[in-house]
Structures are given as C-alpha cells and as structure tokens.
Design a protein that fits this description.
Chain lengths: ~800, ~160
C-alpha cells in the first residue's frame, strides 16, 4: 500500500496524503475556542433539569408539581402525563423495544426520568426539582441478573402486553451438535465462569442538548452530543412525528463519546418538548451522576465458557453460555439481525471448527444500554472470553501462554478465513504480530526475570492477549439499525480555484476526522490537505449516514471519501482530455495532475482542471460542468484489524496493589493514514483496558442502588496508573477496502483488558479472578478468598 | 452579591448569587467557555484554572471566594496571539483528541513549568494526576509537556 513519505510536502509542510500530520482541529481546542454543546448559548435560552427516581423499582402513586410551578423562575414543569397527551411518554429504543421518556406508571431503575423542569437558569431549574413531590410505592427489585428468570422474580416490563417473565431473548450461533461431539471426545476440557462487569464509557463531556423550535417556520434545531446526527434526526422524526426536513441536528464539538452518545436519551426529547412548550430554546446538560447512572452502560455479561483441546495444546472447540443483563429497557445499539451484537465472533484468532454460543438476555432494574465503551458491538466481551479461556487452558496444561497461542493462531495462508460462526476474516498475518510483540517485550528475558523474582518471593506477571476485531459495520444487506442500512454518503466539491470541501456523514468525538479525511482526499487527488475542508456534524450540510461508532468511520466513510475522490479524478480526466485536446486513453495520472502519455510537459493540474470545469471550456459530450461528486458507500464486508498485546505487572503482596510496569501493543490496522492519530487512539484504548481490568465497575446493592454514581466511586485511570505505552505495528491491508485500511478506534479497548487480567493472574499463579482487580480483590485472591460477585455489593 | 475579580488581566464586576461556582461564573457570566465542567465531585480537573498562579479546580470554589483574586483561564494562556509553548507542545505531540480535558491539563502544566522548567516524566505524571483524560492514555500529554519544557523560548506559531 502506498505510503507517501517520498512525496514532496505541501506548501504548508503537510504530507500530500498519508503520513504524520499535525491535526487541523487542534488550534481551536488549544485556545479554548472549541464549541461543545454546553458552550452553545442562544438568546432567551432556558435551562432544563430532570427529576430522577431514587428507587430502582417503584410504582408512582402521585406527582405534585404545584410548588415547582409556583417558583418565580420556572417556565414549565413537564411530567409523563403531559407527554402522554402528546404521545411522547414512550420512545422506541435502538433495539425495537420502547423506553419511557418520563415515567407514567412505575420507575424501573434508579435514576430514571420522572419529570422535567424548565427555568430561567440552571440553578433555578435544580431548585425546582426539590419542590416536586412524588409519592412512590417501592417494589421488590431484580438487582441480580442471575435471579431475573426465577419464578418469583418481579415482572419489570408489565407495560408490555402479555409479559410473564423478564426474558428479552434467547439466541444462539454455531453448530451445537458438532460442538458437543468434539467436547465429548476431547482429551482436555477446561471450564471457567467469568463476569464482564457493568462499566461505563464516561466521556469527559456528559450528554446534553440545546433544542430550539421556531414556531413560525416549524423548524426544529437541536445541538446535541451525538455520534450519529443523521440517525438521530430520523429518530426524532419517528418519535415525535415531526417532519424530517424541518429537523436539523447539529453535533458540534463532542467531548468524547466511546459509544455513550449513540442513543437518544429522554433528556434530549424533554429539551425538545420544553422548547415546543415555552417557545424558547432549552438547554439540558446532565451532571456526572446522571451520566453514570442513567446513560448507556457497557458489558454486564455473565459468561460460562468451556474450551476443549488435546493434551499437547491443540485447541479443538469453544462453547459458552451467556447471561446478558440489559437493564430495564432493551436499549442496545447494534445491527438488528444480531441481538447479542457481534459476540459470536468469540472464536477469536485461532484455528478450530467447533464452536457454539448461547446468549440469554434479561431485564433487570438497572439503566438501559449495553453496547458502548468502544466495544465494537460486544467484540470486547468475546475477546475477553476467548483470551481468558486460552489462558485457563495454558494454566491447566502448564504450557507457556505464548507458545499455546502460537500453536493455535490462524496461519496467513488460511485467509480469507470463514469462522465456525460465519464471519469472513478478510486478511491477517497473526504469527507475525505475536512474534513482533514478543520481540519488543523481550519475552524470554521477562520469563527469566519472573523466575528470579518468584525465587525471591516477589509477584511479577506477564499477560498476553491476541485479538481479532470486526469493524466497519456494515454491508447493508446484513446490517441496519432500526431499519436504517449502515451505508454512508460522502460529497466532494472542488471550488474553481482548486480548494475542496468534503462532506462526511460520520462524526468525530476526538478522532481527528478533519485531518484524516483531508489526508485521504489529498492522497487520491494531490490537493494539499490544508486546502481541503472537512464538513461534518450538521445534518443540513452533510449527506446521510449512520455515524461514528464500532470503529466504522475509516472503514465505511473513509472508503466513501476515497471513492468520491476517485470519481472526481475520473471526471477531471474527461475535462483534461478536452483541455489538452487529446483522447482520454492518452492520459496518464501522476499525483495531482493528468498529462499526455509520452509528453509529460503537456498536462493540467487538478486545480487547473477545477477552474476549467467552471469556465467556458467546451466539455465533451455528456460531461456537465463543475468538478464534484457524491457517493454512498456500502461496505462489502467488515474489516478485521488484529493485534498482539503483552502486559507486565508487579503485584504488591501486602496490599494487593497492581503496578502495570510495561504494556506492549502491536496493532495491525492496515496502512495508517496518520500514524500519529492512530497511535493516539491506541494509547487511549490501552488506558481503558487498565481501567476495566483494575478499577472500573458499576455495582448494585439488593435494593438496586447504584454504587458507582460519581467519579469518587467509579474510578477512571489517571496518569499514575498508566505506563508509557510501547507500540509496534505490522501492516496487512484489507483486500476489499479501497485504501486497504481497517479501522483502529476500538482495537485497544477490545484487546487490552484480558492482557492486564492475564498478567495479574500470572503474577498470582491462579487460574481466574474477576475484574476489576482492585487492590482489595487482588488481596482477597491472594488470601484464597476471591470476590465472586464484583457486580454486587453483597455476596 | 457583587463580585470583582481580574480574569486574564481584565477586571470584571458582576452581580452573582452567593452560591454560584466559579466555573459557572466564568462560563455563563463571562462567556469564557474554554474552561469546562465534567463532574460533581471535584475529581476530573477539566475545570482547572489558575488563581494567583496556583492551579485550582474552579468547580470547588465559589465565584464569591475568587473575588479580589487574579484568575487565568485557557483563553489567557496565549500571549499577544502567540501560543504558549504548552499549547504548541500539545499540538506537536498530539496531546489532545476530543479536547475537553485539554484546557484544564494545560493550565496545570503551565503552573508546573513555571515552578520547575525541566520536570522529568514521573514529575509530570504526578502533577497531572488530578486531570483525567479519557482519550489519550496520557502518554502524549506527558510528551507534550516535555516538548514545552524543551522549547521554552520558542517564538511560537501564531494563534
Ligand atoms: S468539574 Fe470535575 S473537577 Fe471540576
Ligand atoms: S482529549 Fe478527550 S478527554 Fe482528554
């Protein structure tokens, strides 16, 4: 694949295509001039606040809003009753369930939305919440997913007709009979249960919206924290029955998303209703507790895995039963066909043909959500499962986990490779990546050091993980969200002077699209990246597409950008043939220029052709003027980035404290458009891995009280927990992507947690202990009394 | 009540509620939205400003308590249109992604470099441990601050 380091730099000193380039978006953020949703201030704007339920499960007996309404600064108090009149009390979720906007019957999780106050300022809005009297009749809660299907479990979703239990779905993939056969005759079978606890993406910017309904024109404008502005526009049209052409969703600068900003939250709908009711713009920004307690959580998978192998370590099969806690409403964001997301990619990076998974999902009295935190539609859970199971097998066989992996990894000649559960991996050279990680780590020396340390009574651990990701959802024929196919549009317009505007449908939350996408066009057309403006985040000014999550920006929209640039190049060729008075067949392209074969002096730059396309040059038959194009890109397959990670930890025996000493990450995401940005994304994901493996968990008590509702209880990694990351790379292009790139945004978040956990367990020389491996959990594991339910405050 | 304070070298007098947090005063009353707000418990540091040269989480103090003091926010970090070396370092080393934590961490970094112009990476890590970043994994933030330490007198890119 082309790497452009040999090309001359642009006038501004940027690469004329791929390569390390300082980000175009940086300066506004560095000067404090970013434009986040809470920075939007409109004349006459009012402020909204949500009253939330203190109970996890309770019937609402009465709501008295009179005192709040009497507050001098309050402009409106909205309850579920009022929304019912507008047919807005319930809204569809991304999984075809419904979710309460403001509660009308009973609350189903702690922090659920009960009423909405609109007032003159944010302080007054909060004051007024205190004045609303709600009488609740508490109900028994389902706080433990494992008890959700008990015969005496309270029915959470009695709003759904005919509901007699808390089951959402029961879904399976793989060949059960074949799998059972393999397990029955295998020499070695290792079983291990594990919990991927409920965690939260917790972007530094919480969720919010400013809604402005112009009653005269009927135009609704919403500035909102969304990773998918176009999908939100369609959803608002469906939810509120508003005409879609009168809705404009603006996603300004977004302070991190990680999946937290994919869905629509009741607060957004309330802000819209608030603006309709008051005739003024209404801003709603949740606080941190609201963000942690009520918006899209991630994971909450209870997995019982089994791996079958020969005595000498050839893996034969893997099977797993999963219990998935989806909370009170099934609000999972994922392609419709796949209720458990892409979890059935759980066979991972290894070569065996027997695999089966069963996933049962249940309602509990917890917040809805479930696909978030850079999880690639549940591949995070899948990779954790397989990488833990492989380590459990290594533990039982007393084999080195690197050797066991090397023995079972798919070989390069097996690609394209169809997995036992039906995924077609596009390309890979797995052994090369693992060898590279071991080389950087100095694996053999680390093992020697470990032997010496152990002899001294010290606890040092080395953990590995190997992951295969599937990103860039996805082919329209297989993948849609709420019926919207997962293809993305892209438009490229060259102005007469050769400067360009690229309009994309995906939405940066920090990924640097304004830079990367300009580099893609620069690479294709030879226009300096500084001359290309990338426009995003405004549904009135960009083509339709499903937005940024599941690492889909580069695999889907990046492909669209390359294809649209090629269309422009083709059109420029026709114009060049007219301008140079030659046949198109006589033209040859070099970076930024069409010229006559054999006469390189005779040619026209893309900028000259842009001017000619807008001028009075006589154009060939059938060629319209101007130089622009638009495309919709429907990916033929997912792309499959992969990587090998090695983590080295030292554990303090006395306190259980884990120090991550080194972390080596070798990622293969195909060619890197901007290596600096790619490495930054990997760094961020590795920190997530440390967070999940060692610190982050949202636990609940038996009353359904949320025990991780602030950053004092829900711990995020700081600079002190993170080592200086050591990165490496291999490059295996995707054969079906126009520029071979595979996407990388979530790779490290997906791949790193098992490496950290495997390292800690290797230090402790035990087979399994549950995440998060906090000092208390590690200390308990050392005492041979592990914490079995990190997701509950009780055992 | 009335408060008067100097923000980025300019004196402001405003009528505020006694309970108003400094972060809200800066953002909503003065329109200095470069200072962000990210948590309810003074844990995240995205609201960090300098008060009389010290880094302070502006969500932990009331506007009234800042009266009479000198406040410096991210908008006051550049000098005469020239980016501070810390700002340049963040750009050169890709120390920011979404940019939400960035103003706060840069205000902390400026304080560190004023006091210790050549900090090692461990000192830097310890110093910024009150500023949470969810995007960068900190490595490039550390490098950005090292870059600033190594280029103290850089003429600088014009802002
Ligand atoms: S807003 Fe989080 S520390 Fe101030
Ligand atoms: S750059 Fe996004 S939180 Fe730090």
């Amino acid at each position: 694949m082309t790497v452009t380091e040999d090309r001359p730099l642009s006038p501004a000193g940027n690469p004329m295509g791929f390569g390390r380039m300082i980000r175009k978006e940086d300066v506004r953020f560095l000067r404090g001039k970013g434009n986040f949703v809470d920075d939007v201030n409109l004349p006459g704007m009012l402020h909204g606040a949500v009253l939330r339920s203190p109970y996890a499960h309770a019937r609402i007996v009465s709501i008295d809003t009179s005192a709040a309404e009497a507050h001098p600064k309050v402009k409106a108090v909205i309850t579920g009753k009022i929304l019912e009149g507008l047919k807005l009390a319930w809204m569809p979720t991304l999984s075809m369930d419904v979710q309460s906007v403001l509660c009308t019957d009973k609350v189903r999780f702690q922090g659920q939305e009960v009423a909405f106050v609109v007032a003159e300022d944010r302080y007054a809005a909060r004051d007024a919440l205190e004045l609303i009297e709600v009488e609740y009749e508490p109900l028994p809660t389902v706080y433990d997913a494992r008890k959700a299907l008990d015969a005496d479990a309270p029915i959470i979703r009695d709003d759904l007709e005919g509901r007699t239990d808390n089951k959402i779905y029961d879904w399976e993939a793989g060949d059960k009979a074949k799998c059972d056969e393999v397990f029955a005759s295998a020499e070695v079978v290792v079983k291990q249960s594990m919990i991927y606890p409920r965690v939260h993406p917790a972007p530094m910017e919480t969720c919010g919206a400013v809604a402005s309904m112009d009653k005269v024109t009927g135009q609704l404008t919403i500035w909102t924290t969304t990773q998918a502005p176009h999908a939100h526009r369609t959803l608002y049209a469906l939810v509120a029955g508003l005409p879609e052409h009168k809705i404009r969703v603006i996603s300004p600068d977004i302070g991190g998303g990680f999946g937290n900003k994919v869905g629509i939250y009741p607060g957004y709908v309330c802000a819209i209703v608030g603006s309709i009711v008051t005739g003024k713009p209404v801003k709603w920004m949740e606080d941190r507790s609201e963000n942690l307690m009520s918006t899209s959580f991630a994971r909450d998978y209870h997995m019982d895995g089994e791996i079958a192998a020969t005595k000498d370590g050839k893996i034969l099969g893997l099977r797993v039963n999963v219990l998935a806690d989806h909370g009170a409403f099934n609000g999972v964001a994922q392609p419709t066909k796949y209720p458990a997301g892409f979890f059935h990619i759980f066979t991972g990076s290894y070569d065996y043909s027997a695999a089966h998974c069963n996933v049962r999902a249940v309602y509990t009295n917890k917040a809805p959500g479930g696909v978030a935190y850079a999880c690639s539609f549940r591949i995070t859970e899948a990779v954790y499962l397989v990488e833990r199971m492989v380590d459990c097998l290594a533990f039982e066989l007393k084999m080195d986990p690197a050797e066991l992996r090397m023995k079972n990894l798919l070989r390069p000649e097996q690609f394209p490779y169809t997995t036992p559960t039906g995924w077609e991996y596009d390309s890979g050279d797995y052994p090369r990546a693992l060898k590279e990680a071991m080389r950087i780590a100095g694996y053999d020396d680390l093992r020697k050091e470990q032997v010496a340390k152990r002899a001294n009574g010290e606890m040092m651990g080395i953990g590995l993980s190997f992951f295969t990701e599937g990103v860039g959802a996805g082919p329209r024929k297989h993948m849609d969200i709420l019926g919207l196919g997962m293809a993305d549009g892209c438009e490229l317009r060259l102005h007469p002077t050769g400067k360009a505007q690229l309009r994309i449908s995906v939405q940066s939350q920090g990924q640097g699209h304004e830079t990367t996408f300009a580099q893609i066009v620069a690479q294709e057309l030879g226009i300096p990246p500084e001359d290309i403006e990338v426009i995003h985040g405004d549904t009135d000014n960009t083509p339709f597409g499903l937005g940024t999550y599941g690492s889909r920006s580069t695999p889907v929209s990046g492909a669209a950008a390359a294809v649209v640039a090629r269309r422009v190049k083709d059109k420029a060729k026709l114009i060049a043939s007219a301008a140079l008075e030659c046949s198109v067949d006589d033209l040859e392209w070099e970076q930024g220029r069409w010229f006559v074969k054999g006469d390189p002096e005779k040619g026209k730059t893309i900028q000259e052709l842009a001017f000619a396309a807008h001028g009075n040059l006589e154009l060939p038959e059938g060629v319209e003027g101007h130089l622009d194009a638009s495309v919709v890109y429907d990916p033929p397959n997912l792309t499959y980035p992969f990587g090998a990670y090695i983590c080295v930890v030292d554990v303090d025996k006395g306190t259980g404290h884990v120090k991550v000493r080194r972390f080596i990450a070798v990622d293969d995401c195909g060619p890197r458009i901007n290596p600096m940005i790619v490495e930054g994304q990997i760094h961020g994901g590795l920190a997530d891995g440390i967070g999940m493996a060692l610190m982050e968990v949202m636990a609940f008590d038996e009353n359904g009280n949320h025990l991780g509702g602030s950053f004092m209880d829900y711990l995020l990694p700081t600079s002190m927990e993170c080592p200086s990351w050591e990165l490496g790379e291999t490059v295996t292009p995707s054969p079906h992507h126009p520029i071979g790139v595979k996407g990388v945004g979530e790779s490290a978040t997906v791949g790193s947690p098992p490496a950290v956990v495997n390292a800690v367990l290797d230090a402790l020389q035990i087979r399994h202990a549950e995440m998060p491996l906090t000092p208390a959990a590690v200390w308990r594991a050392i005492q041979d009394n592990p914490i079995s339910r990190p997701d509950l405050a009780i055992e | 009540m009335q408060v008067t304070m100097t923000v980025n070298g300019e004196e402001f007098t405003r009528e505020v509620e006694p309970r108003m947090l400094l972060v809200h005063f800066l953002r909503d009353d003065l329109g200095l939205t470069g200072t962000h707000w990210g948590c309810d418990t003074s844990n995240c540091g995205v609201c960090t400003v300098q008060i009389d040269g010290q880094p302070v989480k502006s969500c932990t103090i009331l506007a009234a308590m800042a009266a009479g003091h000198e406040i410096r926010t991210i908008e006051g970090l550049e000098q005469n249109g020239t980016l501070d070396p810390v700002q340049q370092g963040f750009m050169q080393e890709h120390g920011l992604q979404c940019g939400f934590c960035t103003p706060g961490v840069m205000m902390t970094a400026r304080w560190l470099l004023d006091k210790n112009p050549d900090p090692d990476t461990e000192t830097i890590r310890e110093c910024i441990s009150g500023n949470i970043c969810r995007c960068t994994g900190y490595e490039n933030i550390v490098r950005a601050i090292r870059w600033a330490a190594e280029h103290p007198a850089t003429e600088g890119a014009s802002a």
